[in-house]
Amino acid sequence: MRWSRWTWCSLAIASSASAQSFNIDFGAAGSAPASTYGAAGSPGVWNVIGVLPGFSRTPLVDLQGAAGPVELYMYGGSSLALLAVDDAGTQGDDAALMDDMLIGSNDPVDVCVWIDGLEPGEYEVLTYALTPGESTRECRVRVDFADQGETMIGGPWPGQMTEGTTHARHTVTSGNGRIGLHSGLYNGYLQSGINGVQVRPTALLGVEATRPRDAWRLVASPDPGRSTQWLVFSGPPTPGGSVIIHDVSGRAVWSAAIDAAAAETRIAWPGVDLAGGRIAPGVYVAHWRDREGRRLASRRLARVR
Predict the structure, then answer these.
(1) Cα 24 to Cα 45: distance, rounded to the nearest angstrom
(2) What is the pLDDT of residues 109-143, one digit of tens each?
(3) Is residue 118 within 8 Å of 175, Cβ to Cβ?
(4) Strand-by-strand arrangement of the 46-49 sheet
Protein backbone atom coordinates (compact mmCIF):
# COMPACT_ATOMS: atom_id res chain seq x y z
CA MET A 1 0.00 0.00 0.00
CA ARG A 2 1.26 3.47 -0.89
CA TRP A 3 0.67 6.27 1.60
CA SER A 4 0.09 9.78 0.30
CA ARG A 5 1.47 12.86 1.98
CA TRP A 6 -2.12 13.75 2.93
CA THR A 7 -2.59 10.34 4.57
CA TRP A 8 0.57 10.71 6.65
CA CYS A 9 -0.48 14.25 7.59
CA SER A 10 -3.93 13.05 8.62
CA LEU A 11 -2.47 10.25 10.73
CA ALA A 12 -0.08 12.67 12.41
CA ILE A 13 -2.91 15.08 13.26
CA ALA A 14 -5.06 12.25 14.65
CA SER A 15 -2.16 10.91 16.72
CA SER A 16 -1.38 14.35 18.14
CA ALA A 17 -5.05 14.99 18.94
CA SER A 18 -5.40 11.59 20.60
CA ALA A 19 -2.39 12.37 22.79
CA GLN A 20 -4.29 15.46 24.01
CA SER A 21 -7.42 13.44 24.88
CA PHE A 22 -8.19 12.36 28.45
CA ASN A 23 -10.82 10.26 30.23
CA ILE A 24 -11.30 10.95 33.94
CA ASP A 25 -13.44 9.05 36.44
CA PHE A 26 -13.86 10.46 39.94
CA GLY A 27 -14.02 7.54 42.33
CA ALA A 28 -12.13 5.03 44.45
CA ALA A 29 -9.09 3.16 43.18
CA GLY A 30 -10.01 0.11 41.16
CA SER A 31 -13.38 1.48 40.03
CA ALA A 32 -12.37 2.58 36.52
CA PRO A 33 -14.39 1.69 33.42
CA ALA A 34 -12.64 -0.54 30.87
CA SER A 35 -10.39 1.11 28.30
CA THR A 36 -12.75 -0.15 25.57
CA TYR A 37 -15.50 2.05 27.03
CA GLY A 38 -16.04 5.50 25.56
CA ALA A 39 -19.17 6.77 27.38
CA ALA A 40 -20.31 9.68 25.15
CA GLY A 41 -16.75 10.39 23.99
CA SER A 42 -13.73 8.32 22.96
CA PRO A 43 -12.69 4.94 24.40
CA GLY A 44 -9.33 4.73 26.09
CA VAL A 45 -7.59 4.47 29.44
CA TRP A 46 -9.49 6.10 32.31
CA ASN A 47 -7.73 8.09 35.03
CA VAL A 48 -9.35 7.28 38.39
CA ILE A 49 -9.04 10.22 40.77
CA GLY A 50 -10.26 10.64 44.33
CA VAL A 51 -10.37 13.76 46.49
CA LEU A 52 -7.16 15.79 46.22
CA PRO A 53 -5.94 18.45 48.66
CA GLY A 54 -6.84 21.91 47.40
CA PHE A 55 -4.80 22.84 44.29
CA SER A 56 -2.62 19.73 44.67
CA ARG A 57 -1.80 18.40 41.21
CA THR A 58 -1.93 14.85 39.89
CA PRO A 59 -0.63 13.76 36.47
CA LEU A 60 -2.95 12.36 33.81
CA VAL A 61 -2.34 9.70 31.19
CA ASP A 62 -3.87 9.97 27.72
CA LEU A 63 -6.19 7.49 26.02
CA GLN A 64 -3.26 5.17 25.27
CA GLY A 65 -2.04 5.31 28.87
CA ALA A 66 0.96 7.50 28.04
CA ALA A 67 2.11 10.03 30.62
CA GLY A 68 2.92 13.61 29.71
CA PRO A 69 2.83 17.15 31.08
CA VAL A 70 -0.96 17.34 31.57
CA GLU A 71 -2.15 17.54 35.18
CA LEU A 72 -5.43 17.87 37.08
CA TYR A 73 -6.14 19.83 40.23
CA MET A 74 -9.29 20.73 42.11
CA TYR A 75 -10.76 22.95 44.78
CA GLY A 76 -14.02 22.99 46.67
CA GLY A 77 -13.24 24.31 50.11
CA SER A 78 -13.32 21.75 52.90
CA SER A 79 -16.45 19.98 51.66
CA LEU A 80 -15.11 17.85 48.79
CA ALA A 81 -15.88 14.15 49.18
CA LEU A 82 -16.61 11.02 47.16
CA LEU A 83 -20.19 9.82 46.89
CA ALA A 84 -20.66 6.15 45.97
CA VAL A 85 -24.16 4.71 45.43
CA ASP A 86 -25.13 1.48 43.68
CA ASP A 87 -27.75 2.83 41.30
CA ALA A 88 -30.10 0.02 40.32
CA GLY A 89 -30.44 1.32 36.76
CA THR A 90 -26.79 1.41 35.72
CA GLN A 91 -24.79 -1.63 34.70
CA GLY A 92 -21.21 -2.47 33.75
CA ASP A 93 -18.99 0.38 32.62
CA ASP A 94 -21.86 2.87 32.84
CA ALA A 95 -22.07 2.00 36.54
CA ALA A 96 -18.30 2.28 36.95
CA LEU A 97 -18.45 5.87 35.70
CA MET A 98 -21.79 7.07 37.03
CA ASP A 99 -22.21 5.33 40.42
CA ASP A 100 -19.55 7.46 42.10
CA MET A 101 -19.11 11.19 42.13
CA LEU A 102 -16.86 13.99 43.37
CA ILE A 103 -19.23 16.17 45.41
CA GLY A 104 -19.14 19.40 47.37
CA SER A 105 -21.64 21.49 49.32
CA ASN A 106 -20.91 24.90 47.71
CA ASP A 107 -20.11 26.49 51.07
CA PRO A 108 -19.27 28.85 49.52
CA VAL A 109 -17.02 27.42 46.75
CA ASP A 110 -18.51 25.18 44.08
CA VAL A 111 -16.81 22.01 42.83
CA CYS A 112 -13.92 23.25 40.69
CA VAL A 113 -11.64 21.12 38.49
CA TRP A 114 -8.83 22.30 36.25
CA ILE A 115 -6.90 20.43 33.57
CA ASP A 116 -3.58 22.08 32.82
CA GLY A 117 -0.67 21.48 30.44
CA LEU A 118 -2.70 20.94 27.27
CA GLU A 119 -1.58 22.20 23.90
CA PRO A 120 -3.40 25.45 23.02
CA GLY A 121 -6.41 24.82 20.81
CA GLU A 122 -10.12 24.08 20.71
CA TYR A 123 -11.44 21.21 22.84
CA GLU A 124 -14.66 19.36 23.46
CA VAL A 125 -15.40 18.89 27.18
CA LEU A 126 -17.95 16.32 28.35
CA THR A 127 -18.86 16.75 32.02
CA TYR A 128 -20.85 13.93 33.63
CA ALA A 129 -22.96 15.14 36.56
CA LEU A 130 -25.82 12.72 37.19
CA THR A 131 -26.11 12.17 40.94
CA PRO A 132 -26.42 8.41 41.59
CA GLY A 133 -29.51 7.37 43.49
CA GLU A 134 -31.00 10.91 43.49
CA SER A 135 -33.19 11.32 40.43
CA THR A 136 -34.56 14.69 41.58
CA ARG A 137 -31.20 16.40 42.06
CA GLU A 138 -29.72 18.60 39.34
CA CYS A 139 -26.17 19.96 39.05
CA ARG A 140 -25.34 23.26 37.39
CA VAL A 141 -22.37 22.61 35.09
CA ARG A 142 -20.23 25.15 33.27
CA VAL A 143 -16.81 25.42 31.59
CA ASP A 144 -14.81 28.63 31.80
CA PHE A 145 -14.93 30.68 28.57
CA ALA A 146 -16.83 27.97 26.69
CA ASP A 147 -18.96 28.62 23.64
CA GLN A 148 -21.99 27.28 25.52
CA GLY A 149 -23.36 28.54 28.81
CA GLU A 150 -24.21 26.70 32.01
CA THR A 151 -26.28 23.51 31.79
CA MET A 152 -28.44 21.81 34.39
CA ILE A 153 -27.73 18.05 34.50
CA GLY A 154 -29.76 15.46 36.39
CA GLY A 155 -32.77 13.18 36.52
CA PRO A 156 -33.33 9.43 36.55
CA TRP A 157 -30.85 7.25 34.65
CA PRO A 158 -32.18 7.26 31.03
CA GLY A 159 -30.73 3.87 30.09
CA GLN A 160 -27.84 5.31 28.08
CA MET A 161 -25.65 8.37 27.94
CA THR A 162 -27.90 11.30 27.03
CA GLU A 163 -26.68 14.87 26.63
CA GLY A 164 -28.61 17.17 28.94
CA THR A 165 -29.41 14.40 31.44
CA THR A 166 -26.20 12.47 32.10
CA HIS A 167 -23.69 15.02 30.86
CA ALA A 168 -23.10 18.46 29.39
CA ARG A 169 -21.12 19.13 26.23
CA HIS A 170 -19.04 22.29 25.87
CA THR A 171 -16.49 23.45 23.33
CA VAL A 172 -13.80 25.85 24.45
CA THR A 173 -10.68 27.42 22.96
CA SER A 174 -7.77 27.32 25.41
CA GLY A 175 -4.95 29.71 24.68
CA ASN A 176 -2.92 28.87 27.78
CA GLY A 177 -3.38 25.08 27.87
CA ARG A 178 -5.78 25.17 30.82
CA ILE A 179 -9.47 24.23 31.00
CA GLY A 180 -11.57 24.94 34.09
CA LEU A 181 -14.92 23.30 34.78
CA HIS A 182 -17.37 23.64 37.63
CA SER A 183 -20.43 22.03 39.17
CA GLY A 184 -22.68 23.99 41.48
CA LEU A 185 -23.10 27.62 42.39
CA TYR A 186 -20.75 29.81 44.41
CA ASN A 187 -22.31 30.52 47.80
CA GLY A 188 -25.16 28.16 46.88
CA TYR A 189 -24.92 25.90 49.96
CA LEU A 190 -26.25 22.89 48.09
CA GLN A 191 -24.78 19.58 46.98
CA SER A 192 -23.40 19.26 43.46
CA GLY A 193 -20.82 17.07 41.82
CA ILE A 194 -19.05 15.53 38.85
CA ASN A 195 -18.94 11.81 37.94
CA GLY A 196 -16.22 12.24 35.36
CA VAL A 197 -14.84 14.28 32.50
CA GLN A 198 -13.74 13.60 28.93
CA VAL A 199 -11.59 16.10 27.06
CA ARG A 200 -10.52 15.82 23.43
CA PRO A 201 -9.49 18.24 20.68
CA THR A 202 -12.29 19.08 18.26
CA ALA A 203 -9.83 18.14 15.49
CA LEU A 204 -10.36 14.54 16.55
CA LEU A 205 -14.07 14.89 15.82
CA GLY A 206 -13.58 15.69 12.14
CA VAL A 207 -15.10 19.12 12.69
CA GLU A 208 -13.56 20.65 9.58
CA ALA A 209 -14.72 17.73 7.43
CA THR A 210 -18.33 18.01 8.59
CA ARG A 211 -18.62 21.79 8.89
CA PRO A 212 -21.23 23.23 6.47
CA ARG A 213 -19.78 24.75 3.31
CA ASP A 214 -21.47 28.08 4.09
CA ALA A 215 -20.06 28.32 7.64
CA TRP A 216 -18.22 31.44 8.68
CA ARG A 217 -14.46 31.64 8.35
CA LEU A 218 -12.14 34.03 10.18
CA VAL A 219 -8.65 34.99 9.05
CA ALA A 220 -6.23 37.64 10.31
CA SER A 221 -3.78 39.78 8.38
CA PRO A 222 -1.00 40.29 9.11
CA ASP A 223 -0.42 37.50 11.58
CA PRO A 224 1.77 37.92 13.58
CA GLY A 225 1.08 41.63 13.76
CA ARG A 226 2.81 44.65 15.23
CA SER A 227 0.23 47.38 14.67
CA THR A 228 -3.25 47.05 13.16
CA GLN A 229 -4.47 43.53 12.39
CA TRP A 230 -7.44 43.03 10.07
CA LEU A 231 -9.96 40.36 11.05
CA VAL A 232 -11.78 39.19 7.94
CA PHE A 233 -15.02 37.24 8.35
CA SER A 234 -16.50 35.45 5.34
CA GLY A 235 -19.72 33.49 5.04
CA PRO A 236 -23.46 34.05 4.82
CA PRO A 237 -24.72 37.52 5.81
CA THR A 238 -25.94 37.86 9.41
CA PRO A 239 -27.91 40.59 11.20
CA GLY A 240 -24.87 41.43 13.31
CA GLY A 241 -23.02 40.37 16.42
CA SER A 242 -19.64 41.10 17.93
CA VAL A 243 -15.97 40.25 17.83
CA ILE A 244 -14.26 39.63 21.17
CA ILE A 245 -10.53 39.14 21.71
CA HIS A 246 -9.28 37.23 24.77
CA ASP A 247 -5.81 36.85 26.21
CA VAL A 248 -4.42 33.44 27.16
CA SER A 249 -6.02 33.62 30.61
CA GLY A 250 -9.45 33.90 28.97
CA ARG A 251 -9.89 37.58 29.91
CA ALA A 252 -11.60 39.74 27.28
CA VAL A 253 -9.17 42.49 26.25
CA TRP A 254 -11.03 44.11 23.33
CA SER A 255 -14.40 43.92 21.62
CA ALA A 256 -16.38 45.56 18.85
CA ALA A 257 -20.10 45.41 18.10
CA ILE A 258 -21.23 44.75 14.53
CA ASP A 259 -24.62 46.12 13.44
CA ALA A 260 -24.76 43.89 10.37
CA ALA A 261 -22.35 41.58 8.59
CA ALA A 262 -22.08 41.17 4.85
CA ALA A 263 -20.69 38.14 3.02
CA GLU A 264 -17.25 39.52 3.86
CA THR A 265 -16.73 41.83 6.82
CA ARG A 266 -13.42 43.41 7.80
CA ILE A 267 -12.72 44.63 11.34
CA ALA A 268 -9.56 46.51 12.27
CA TRP A 269 -7.99 45.75 15.63
CA PRO A 270 -5.30 48.33 16.38
CA GLY A 271 -3.64 46.14 19.04
CA VAL A 272 -5.12 47.97 22.02
CA ASP A 273 -7.19 46.89 25.02
CA LEU A 274 -10.64 48.07 26.11
CA ALA A 275 -9.11 51.14 27.76
CA GLY A 276 -7.17 52.06 24.62
CA GLY A 277 -3.78 51.02 25.96
CA ARG A 278 -1.34 49.07 23.82
CA ILE A 279 -1.43 45.36 24.60
CA ALA A 280 1.60 43.22 25.39
CA PRO A 281 3.13 40.86 22.81
CA GLY A 282 1.77 37.34 23.02
CA VAL A 283 -0.98 35.00 21.85
CA TYR A 284 -4.63 36.07 21.74
CA VAL A 285 -7.87 34.46 20.55
CA ALA A 286 -10.55 36.27 18.53
CA HIS A 287 -14.16 35.02 18.62
CA TRP A 288 -16.87 36.14 16.22
CA ARG A 289 -20.32 35.71 17.82
CA ASP A 290 -23.83 36.36 16.59
CA ARG A 291 -26.39 38.43 18.47
CA GLU A 292 -27.45 35.43 20.57
CA GLY A 293 -23.86 34.86 21.67
CA ARG A 294 -23.27 31.74 19.53
CA ARG A 295 -19.69 31.43 18.30
CA LEU A 296 -19.46 31.43 14.52
CA ALA A 297 -15.68 31.40 14.10
CA SER A 298 -12.46 31.73 16.09
CA ARG A 299 -8.86 32.59 15.28
CA ARG A 300 -5.62 32.62 17.25
CA LEU A 301 -3.65 35.83 16.87
CA ALA A 302 -0.02 36.61 17.61
CA ARG A 303 1.27 40.04 18.61
CA VAL A 304 4.96 40.87 18.38
CA ARG A 305 7.03 43.90 19.30
Answers:
(1) 9
(2) 999 999 999 998 889 999 999 999 998 888 999 99
(3) no
(4) 46-49, 22-26, 196-201, 121-128, 167-174
